[in-house]
Design goal:
mainly alpha; Multidrug-efflux Transporter Regulator, Chain: A, Domain 2; two-stranded antiparallel ribbon
């Protein structure tokens, strides 16, 4: 998104904690298109890590609420496409 500060990001732990989900679940949701895809970065000896957009934790909460109410991933993706969820920073 234009105007977003690329020097700040959310961690996988922050996304997971916000949504009450596990790391594998967060990555699966990103693959299904209901969370933004994280940027993979190499940290040298620290290995590979992921940087999520700053709105990803709030979006994880939104997705979790939709799933808890019985929506399917396809319905959630369609709602995102229709602009039902608007990221805020």
């Amino acid at each position: 998104m234009p105007g977003i500060d690329d020097t700040r990001w959310a961690t996988t732990a922050e996304v997971c904690e916000a949504g009450g989900i596990s790391g594998p679940t967060a990555f699966r949701w990103a693959q299904k298109g209901v969370l933004p895809a994280p940027k993979k970065v190499h940290g040298g000896q620290r290995g590979l890590s992921s940087r999520w957009s700053l709105h990803a934790p709030a979006q994880a909460v939104w997705v979790k609420k939709k799933l808890d109410r019985g929506f399917t991933f396809e319905e959630i993706a369609a709602a995102l496409e229709a602009g039902e969820y608007v990221p805020t920073l």
